[in-house]
């Protein structure tokens, strides 16, 4: 009777252990990633999750949903290191670093919320929960610089010289022209005087006679 009771207790203990192991299959102990990811709408971001060596050749996936029971798989691997593309998502497994990365291209507001990195396992998947927070890109302020050009002093001096030199030239030419005109007038006066002087003498002589 005692031996029969012990066998029942042992079987119950084994069943309890089996249930514990069974339930622990959905825990995130074998796969882990960041708790939260901060990103911007329209700007690509990457999420990387790590797993135990045992699950190297298992299929990995990225799914959306607050509850692991009904999360929707968006993209998954084939168990190899081949990079998979689907819509705005890509996923790649790295067997050397025991990690897989998910790229989200041109993320939208709907890409915010709770997501899961998961390993496709018989009956119970290995999963870890990640919260994605997306915000609008900060506005950028463009400041245009105004360039001021200062002319050198020598350039200003040369410009002034060129500007005023024609006036000086005109003044000199005017002075020279005025001097030449005076000389011509004097010569003309002397010529007239030399022509009229004999006539005046003859007139005076006739009057005296």
List the helices and strands and how they pair.
Layout (H helix, E strand, L loop, with lengths): L1 H22 L7 E2 L3 E5 L4 E7 L8 E5 L7 E5 L7 E3 L2 E6 L4 E6 L8 E7 L6 E10 L17 H56 L1
Parallel strand pairs: 2-10
Antiparallel strand pairs: 1-3, 3-8, 4-5, 4-9, 6-7, 7-8, 9-10
Polypeptide structure, described:
It contains 2 helices and 10 strands, in the order αββββββββββα. The chain has 209 residues and is of the alpha+beta class. A hairpin with a 2-residue loop joins strand 6 and strand 7 (89-94). The chain is rod-shaped, with a radius of gyration of 54 Å. The N and C termini lie far apart (201 Å).
Fourth-level CATH superfamily of the largest domain = Immunoglobulins
Number of domains: 2
Distance between the termini: 201 Å
SS content category: alpha+beta
Let me know the largest β-sheet.
Answer: 5 strands, antiparallel
Tell me the strand order in the biggest sheet.
1-3-8-7-6
Helix-strand string: HEEEEEEEEEEH
Average pLDDT works out at: 75
Q: Quick one: overall form?
A: rod-shaped
Rg over C-alpha atoms, rounded to the nearest angstrom? 54 Å
Q: Can you tell me the CATH topology of the largest domain?
A: Immunoglobulin-like
Q: Please report the first level of CATH classification, the CATH class of the largest domain.
A: Mainly Beta
CATH architecture term of the largest domain = Sandwich
What's the count of strands? 10
Name the quaternary structure.
Answer: single chain
Number of helices: 2
Helix content percent band: 25-40%
Percent of residues in beta strands? 25-35%
Residue stretches low in confidence (pLDDT < 50, at least 5 long) are 13-28, 145-151, 153-176
